[in-house]
Structure prediction request, 542 residues.
Amino acid sequence: MALSRGRMVAALLLLLPRRLAATRAEAGAQPPENVVRVPWALRLRLQRGAQRRRRGQREAAAAPHPGKLLLRSRRPELSQPRWQTVGRWERPQLVSTGWKHRKACGDYFQLEPSQEAAPALQAPPPDAGQGPSFAEMGLQPALLAGLEGLSVGRPTAVQRLAIPALRRGRSALCAAETGSGKTLAYLLPLLDGLLSRPEGPAEAAGPASPSGLVVLPSRELTAQVGAVAEALCRPAGLQVRGLTGGGAAGGLRRQLRAPPPGAAVLLGTPGALREALRRRFLALGRLRWMVLDEADVLMDDTFAEPLEEILAYAPLAVGAPGPAGPGEARTQVVVVGATFPAGLSETLGKFTDVSRFVTLTTQSLHRLPPHVQQKFVRLKGQDKLPELLQLLRDHPASGGTVLIFCNSASTVNWLGYILDDHKIKHLRLQGQMSAAARAGIFASFQKGDASVLVCTDLASRGLDTSSVQLVVNYDFPDTLQDYLHRVGRVGRVGSKAPGAVVSFVTHRWDVDLVRKIETAARKRTGLPGMDSSISKPPSKGG
Prediction:
């Protein structure tokens, strides 16, 4: 049986004194003192090798084989069973510890699903029974008819939380995990308020004066939320209008004045809304409520300036009293998202009293989805493309659609050319496309015109991807927030299967984020650095 390199060196060192002694005896010389000096560096190397072998033997003997796994590793000794608990201050042994070294390429670990259904669909606590239905919440019959048209059954966790609070007229920060039903959570109570206290029609000759406004970061999300709002408003006779940019000013005027006139609810992107307000095609004097959906994107540098200008046009009263009464002209503000930026309170505090806001959060906020399989693979950059092509070949035709995320528009275009060469039918979606080119791409993907969509983070926020069953992070996301939004494209409310996520980990800075994700998964805690932005009060400094 062949000896390992370390054992061979040790054996040679033991035999060396005897060989020297025999040689001197044959020559008739007096044998010297039997001493062999081993270099210090070699001695340490041998000791470390022996320690590693003993540690590996102990870990292999103690490896937890029985039971279902929470984390599956290529190295069984680093797998973690579901029953194992890691303390809050304990430092778990991570698979990704050595991933910054080039020799780690090829290593992987996988987070296994620990439950079948999404947290949003879980039943309320036993003492609360099944929870109230939409009808028991007191919603208008016309809205209940709209829900039947959407084939929506019982409310989700965020809907049970938000609908009663928003019906009382409170301004709120509504935070819930992706794919949990936040759109209905804010539309239902706010539309219910318009139906319970109707206003007279606006003047046809003047600017458009909606009663409700929803601000959204993309034209795709505006079209999607608009379709849901129209389905809810159709039985009630409320009119819904969408406003998106990408054209001349005359296009904005036509969108706002298109029949039927006098839309009660307006949905739009920040740029289009700001342009319409500047040109006085739009007035917000009659506004009763405003929703800022996907707040973390709206607070980005791209949208921050137009958003503040829109807020300045709205009748928001700083320091207004709590719940809005019948005689108040104050606009109810609802900020919605799965993650919130740190400067949210400061921005809103310029226009309204943030201390009066009620915070609505679900228990699964900022946590990794426990029903979605998530795999992390350490790869060299040159190996990402072959790995992706193999994934697409192995993905069954009946296995749902696929989202491939890239960090830049140029990577989306380059990857699209490669897929064309391999005869893989796909669509591309990225923010540098013209408005005409982007129009209808996501709708075509939802219809099933192509089973693969290559995109940037433009498609990671809010869009309904219930048909998606595989997400591939071709480029690992830049932030933990982006990872949560991407992984939230699968396992949504209404999805037929929980789906899976595969992430390619290439750069050293990617490994830093992966270590935080792996630590949170092993400890069953939320991802770090996301809670303070919701609960932290606005700064009183300059």
The CA atoms of residues 279 and 337 lie 30 Å apart.
